[in-house]
Amino acid sequence: MSENTESDKAPAAANPQEEALTLATALRYIRRFIFRTLRIEGNAHPNETIESIKADIDFKGYNVWILIFSILIASIGLNVNSGAVVIGAMLISPLMGPILGVGLSLGINDWSTMKRSLTNFAVMFTVSIITSTIYFSLTPLVDVQSELLARTRPTLLDVFVAFIGGLAGILAANRKIKSNVVPGVAIATALMPPLCTAGFGIATGQWSFFLGAFYLFIINSIFICLATFVIIRFLNFPVKEFVDAAKAKRTRRYIVAVLLVIAGPSAYTFYNVVVESVFNRRVENFIQENVTFEGAELVKKEIIHNPGDPTRINLVFFGEPIPGPIIDSWRKKLVSYDLADAEIRVVQPQSMEQMNSEEVTKLVDVFSQSQMQIQDKDQTITRLKLALEQEEKNRLPLEQITREIQDFYPRLHSFALARMVEYNDGKMDTLMMANLKWGVPDTTGLKAQMETINRWLCTRLQVDTVAVKSEIVKAKKIKTEAKTLNISP
């Protein structure tokens, strides 16, 4: 009977049709799971959402005062450059209503709601600008902070932020269980700081600040409305039909035209920002890899872009004068970094009076760091000197002592001297060891000589005890007589 039974045979290859069926079932399950996870249509509450948005459109009474207080808080945060204070103002600001109202009215063709939303939007804008202008007119702090500067150059990224924030806002408003956190953060983050910055521009007469911040405010408002419009149409909210189909078509064209007009300048600004960032990165790499000179410290670097003029790279050094040939070698290397059109200007002030506060601060930091390094090196040198002095102090004058002993004891063949460190019962002790090799046939008379040498070594080396070991050297053979004496004078 064969040892190979049916159970021992390898299983047959799986049926390709069965494999395809299994794979299709798995894919169908995954698709159904993803659809159930991301689906929002079933959770929509159109009528409740419409009524909720309409109820928040009006700016009257409490809403106006809450807006004023939040604008004041945000203005203070921008004035003192505190992001935390600005965020706190965003969380309490009631800017959501009119903007969502405009997007809602576009989505459902409700022109009465549109007029009401635009009216309250104008009220919101006016109150915010007046409040921030009054604050920045009265505050003694007039320095331009980074939080303010960040709202003066809107780019295409701000468009994306506004649109995504609008999506989050309308989705949160559409939930049956309302949440003020998500729409408050999503919308107020994009609107509150530009309104305050626009007020700062009016109060200080810096119209570039006002125009940049106002443009950012308009971008955010329009694209939040667009996000609201998209979600309203996606969720199939009940729409009021136009009486005139041509009018509906014109309205859609107007919306597209407005979006293109608003987004166009921001796209151009974003392109310029990207180009400038890439250029600045090349300049930084060039400076880091090439601009060095021993004896002079780079305390400031400045990149100046003026339309129509070559880009200037100003380098401020403090220290020894940099020779012209070295600066020329730096200029020649600009081509390798695709900076052929840039100009290098090296500035070397010879006194503190010729430097501004930032350069002086940088120089003081460099000087302080250098002083710390010098102090560390001085401490290291001091430790090494002490160690060297200790080593020289502990060095045994072996050659001199050997000559002195051999003058008195001619039969002494050689002399060795060393320190032995002994560790006993948790204590360390140093013992001086001396090894005497005699060129004599026997040890007759050596004991007295060894005692004399021991006393002399204790005096000569200024120690209390010397352990002396004696050996006999005869016919080039060493005959050891283990004779160790520990004799104290």
Question: Would you kindly provide a written description of the structure presented here, covering whatever features stand out?
Answer:
- This protein has 489 residues and is α/β, with parallel strands linked by helices.
- The protein folds into four domains: 41-240, Up-down Bundle (Glycerol uptake facilitator protein), CATH 1.20.1080; 292-359, Alpha-Beta Plaits (2-Layer Sandwich), CATH 3.30.70; 360-394; 398-486, GMP Synthetase, Chain A, domain 3, CATH 3.30.300.
- Helix content is 61%, strand content 13%.
- It has 15 helices and seven strands.
- It has helices at 16-38, 46-55, 62-79, 83-92, 96-108, 111-138, 146-149, 156-173, 181-204, 207-234, 245-290, 324-332, 357-394, 398-408, 446-461, and strands at residues 296-304, 312-319, 343-347, 412-424, 427-438, 466-474, 477-486.
- The strands form two sheets. A four-stranded mixed beta sheet has the order 4-5-6-7, covered by helices on one side. It has a three-stranded mixed beta sheet with strand order 1-2-3, sandwiched between helices.
- Helix 2 crosses helix 5.
- The model is unreliable at 475-489 (pLDDT under 50).
In short:
This protein is α/β, with parallel strands linked by helices and 489 residues long. It has helices at 16-38, 46-55, 62-79, 83-92, 96-108, 111-138, 146-149, 156-173, 181-204, 207-234, 245-290, 324-332, 357-394, 398-408, 446-461; strands spanning 296-304, 312-319, 343-347, 412-424, 427-438, 466-474, 477-486.
